[in-house]
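HUMAN: Would you supply a protein with fold tokens?

ASSISTANT:
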Amino acid sequence: MRRIVTWALSTITTLVLLMSYHTSTSSTASTIQASGATAGTGSKGTAPGAAGSAGSAGTGKGTTGGASGSGSAGNSATGLSFAGAAVPTRFGNVQVQITVVDKKITAATVLQIPNRDRKDVQINNRAVPILNAEAVQAQSADIDMVSGATVTSVAYIQSLQSAIDKANL
């Protein structure tokens, strides 16, 4: 009798756990507003979501098709901005923009980063500032990945290399 009760309770517990497991099935790419980027107004060849007033990255929504990168993303008083290719991951797209002054990377920002759920936001809020600082410090795409954000780091490095290639650095 005890075995039957134990078996029934463990089966019910397993079913409840399986039914309450939340999976993320959204396939839309999300974008976030990058802070501190400089993209000029009215510049030619800007990617959707990358153009805005001087001092901000804009609030437009980039998509996989339209935000796959462009030549120069803007021309401001401080330098030229180059958007890398949007690199798709299983969590969403990653796209990096660099600002170049005198053939030196002065800023790196993200135009697209996965943010579908709280875990994406938590991981990327920690990883993106580290990756941005590493890119500026290294002046290349030869940067360390962030532990716990491997997928984002790999895609960030690929998009960063694309932006560097467009800037001819």
Remarks:
- The chain has three helices and five strands.
